[in-house]
Write a structure and sequence with these properties.
The complex is a heterodimer of chains A (423) and B (184). With 423 residues, chain A is α/β, with parallel strands linked by helices. Chain A has 13 helices and 8 strands. Helices cover 53% and strands 8% of the residues of chain B. Classes of the chains: A alpha/beta (423), B mainly alpha (184).
Chain lengths: 423, 184
Amino acid sequence: MSLSAIAVIVMDFTFYYPLFMAYLWMAGSVYYFFYRERVDARPPDDPPALPETPGISFIVPCHNESENARETIQSLLDQDYPEFEVIAINDASTDDTGEILDALAAEDNRVRVIHFGTNLGKAMGLRSGALASNFEFLVCLDGDALLDPHASKWLMRHFIGCPRVGAVTGNPRVRNRTTLLGKIQVGEFSSIIGLIKRAQRIYGRIFTVSGVIAAFRKSALHRVGYWSVDMVAEDIDISWRLQLNHWDIRYEPNALCWILMPERMRGLWRQRLRWAQGGVEVFTRYCSSLLTWKNRRMWMVGLELIVSTTWAYLIGLISLLWILGYLVPLPAALHVETILPGWAGVILGITCLTQFAISLAIDSRYERGLARYYYWMVWYPLLYWMIHAAASIAAVPKALLRKRGQRAIWVSPDRGIQTTLET
Amino acid sequence: MKPQIIIDRPRLRSRGTRLRDTVLTFLMWGVYFYLWLPLISLAGWLFGFRLFYDEMIIQGGYQTLMQVIGWYLLTIGLIVGTVLLWSYSNRTRFRGRERRRHSAPVSVETTTAYFNVTGADLARLKAAHRAVLVWDEAGQLTEIDTGHRMDPRRKFAGTRRRSAQVPPLSPNARRRPTRTARSR
């Protein structure tokens, strides 16, 4: 095969891959909406009555959460669920998180607090919570998130009568929308994360639960050895291990969880790099397990990761050649005339706007007034595909060079501008 | 007081920043319309029919469009068809058929064996409203303190670190007896 033929294939792949993935996600999520979501036809604040209500242990790992811990724990105490306990883990916070949690435990006997003296990381916090828990079902929530009062019932309905279900992930909604980055992420969580989870539920397995809100069956966690303490993305890791152990993971869009996202590029980049690195780490650790017929339903998830990482490197290469073409003469086969093809550009634009429209139409069921974010969603190709590409390129060497067994510990994330500018 | 769920406080940003974001997003919409330049040109040609006829029919401009659209629609059809067929086959094969039996809840015995703690320590931890846990480098629980006056930061003063080298935890990880302290 000649160099120019390879160049044509590479160019076609880099352009058509995101385009056709968009259609795959749209097709899967529209199907999911009509056959799963619309069938329920209940608003999020009217969950179905459960035949039984087994107790829940909420686990909330906290590291320097003095700004948010009180309202996070309060959102759990306000749950419309008969029996639960809240286990907050103070992971060596250097602010007054520990004191706040102790005060909350003194005020309400459903709150229990575990302190660590050294920063041991989120996974160790979750393990400790599981050890101390009194109930079979664990709902894990980040220390800066707010859980909708009805979310517990929506999450629990999947476990009751479905012994195959090992975990259920909720629907994270972005709270902070003051900046452009915040507004874009509102659209991103609908048009990408929501659509992907729905589509993945249709074609088999999901890539990951949302680390910020996920419910687990303790016996399933026990069978796979709980959370790994040496993976940078413990949520991706536990999702893969549960599914490789043939547990089902469900997505519950009615289980709303309000989260704080980075509102600065630096914070966003760090977060996306961690996500990308986590995916590569998990793939390299478990890829050998994928190569069995028993785990064939995970093949699509693995393939998606390989193809998207390859795409990231190829788009990086093409961009480099395109820029180089302006600086030095390149062989004809390597010369990139333009990165915006003619008629294909029309299709790309229409596809993106259709995807936004579908995602907002599906998600407006869970949040009123979402349509106003359509204006800001035009940034999606830049935010998602470009940052995703750059983060994947940077993540592969980081993941491959990271020592196995090195404990992943807390680094306080960017939680938006609202607190820093107010003080 | 109920927390405010949606945080959108434009006043936290200067008027210039808000204007910049709105203008940039408006320009981004312009990029979308730029992508549609061939379509807009097509509409223009339609208004001046003669030019449209020259460009699209005589010069063969429509062939590129037909090629792209034909291949494109075929692929989208294949994707959508595969998703629908796959979902339908899964629904017919597995709906309402549960082959897995209910798993027993995790017992105290399996928990104590896995985490290498005694039954008494576990019971004390489960009943405690406040506890301090100490895990060693190998990921083994070495101390459960349910005392009420303990300051975890004082206890571990000088031992905080950025990261530690530990093997991944497993049920077969190195065991150490758990040291317990009821109060200090």
